[in-house]
Amino acid sequence: MTDSTTRYWDRAQRYLANGQTTAARFSLESLLQRNPTHIPSLLTLVVIALADDRVRAATALALTAAHHLPDDPVLINDVADALLQVGEPVVARACMGHPALADTHDAGVLAHLAALRQLVGDHVESLSLLKRADAEGLNTPEFRFDFGQALIFNGHLEEGEVELGKSLGLRPSHGLTALALARLHKQTPQDNHLHHLKLQLQRVTQGSEDHAALEFALHKELEDLGHYDEAWDALTRANALMYARQRHDPEYAWGLFNSLIDRCTPQCLEPADDLVHEGPQPIFIIGMPRSGTTLLERVLSNHSKVTSAGELNEFAMQLRWAADHASTLDDYIVQRLPDLDYAQIGRRYLERTQWRARGKDFFVDKLPRNWMAAGMIRRALPQARILNLVRDPMDVCFSNYRTWVMGESFPWSYDLKALAAHYLQYRRVMAHWHATMPGQILDVPYGDLVRDPETTTRKVLTYCGLEWEPGCIDITRNRAAVATLSVAQVREPIHQRFFDEWRRYETPLQPLREALAV
């Protein structure tokens, strides 16, 4: 770096250390006037812009960095990371293909690149990179956990279990590793982790995320062994620990969704008559988490004209880009909804996702929480198909309550009252979409899908404009990677085991039943 670059950079770091973000921004902008391709400054300004709700500015900065990539593998990864944060996966993947990354022997760089590949759904490539990092000697507990998860996502369950065991040996109190091992298969009296879990629960930092995850793992293993009273106690402790760590206000959520309904009138949701998007089209699968969305995705992606793109954040990313706001759904976004350019949102979404079709006519975008944006999806992408998985309220709510879904991403899942409120919010919003956009969303009952998969799949395919193919319902032949909590279940034939599991705890769950009966 030149003397002036060093001076401005050091000054910006001092400002940031003191919490003077605006001053740091000015210093970095001054630096870029003298050195326009200084990647660390561009990346730091991306972070500042996102914190200031200037999404478009952050995007422009990240793209500038991508157009001036250095030969430094660490910085290339950092640029790709920033691009994913602003919703630019195509450019991010191009960065990941840089020769400097292909030639590196730095295990840390390889592991970071593997994580980025996983974020864009390149699971085979991610696993290959982790194998390279392993060959270079990387052996941290974090690496072993990531390696194990990648193996499992790609269908190598036994090898993944071995790696998770190594990770746990290096980090015995890590709750998510213990939970991942508990979930891999049903525990037996001869083969379980109860002794380890109970020992670590005495050693773990009380009230921590690890503490909560160990309790979730204990619940899973005790239930497998039929110790339901103890299992319920562990489950209530796990959820209480997690909910205490959240900032969640069900009343605010009610207000937000009521405002969403008020804003999204039939006129607001009507796409332009001449709005036609060319090329492969998305099939959105939405619904509550744990409602069977992954199962339907596996069935659909068995079709010769359909591929799975995984759980994509791209639509929400383009919604926030249009509003120039860092949150994807809050009061500000809801107020702006009627005024956004939906044709532009649709074009930008497709520009960033159609590569995922890989030569097929359709690709499945399976992000359950897109139920909140279904109306906007229809306006921006009128050719898209939207499938809503509908599962029995008690089954789906209990499945969320018993499952560490996504850490702190779903705070409502850790409290029975908040859980019931969230389900009722989902049901109310979905009723509004059906009323304002009749025929634009197909409800797919989970019970019908598993009890009569052929009839249900025929209905789904007809709705999507696809011909029946008998192989669709044989999900065991689908070898694509799975990066959801259903990773083990969806590699089995379609079955009917997951009904009424909540009845083992019918008495303590009575308040949930009463709340859902509203």
Can you offer a commentary on this structure?
With about 525 residues, the protein is mainly α. It has a domain at about 250-270 and about 280-515: 3-Layer(aba) Sandwich (Rossmann fold), CATH 3.40.50. It contains 27 helices and five strands. The relative contact order is 0.09. The model has no long low-confidence stretch (mean pLDDT about 95).
- Beta-strand portion reads under 5%
Contiguous low-pLDDT stretches (5 residues minimum) are none
Q: Give the number of helices.
A: 27
The percentage helix is: 55-70%
What fold name goes in the CATH topology slot of the domain at 250-271 and 280-516? Rossmann fold
Please tell me the CATH architecture of the domain at 250-271 and 280-516 by its name: 3-Layer(aba) Sandwich
Q: Quick one: CATH class of the domain at 250-271 and 280-516?
A: Alpha Beta
Which descriptors would you attach to this protein?
518 residues, mainly alpha, Rossmann fold, five-stranded parallel beta sheet, 27 helices, 5 strands
Structure summarized in a few sentences:
With 518 residues, the chain is mostly helical. The chain contains 27 helices and five strands.
Write the layout of secondary structure elements.
Layout: H1 3-17, H2 21-34, H3 39-51, H4 55-66, H5 73-85, H6 89-96, H7 99-103, H8 107-119, H9 123-135, H10 141-153, H11 157-170, H12 175-184, H13 194-203, H14 209-224, H15 228-244, H16 250-263, H17 266-269, E1 281-287, H18 293-300, E2 306-308, H19 314-323, H20 331-336, H21 342-351, E3 362-365, H22 374-380, E4 385-390, H23 393-401, H24 416-436, E5 441-445, H25 446-451, H26 453-463, H27 510-516
Parallel strand pairs: 1-3, 1-4, 2-3, 4-5
Helix pairs in contact: 1-2, 2-3, 3-4, 3-5, 4-5, 5-6, 5-8, 8-9, 9-10, 10-11, 11-12, 12-14, 13-14, 14-15, 16-24, 19-21, 21-22, 23-24, 24-27
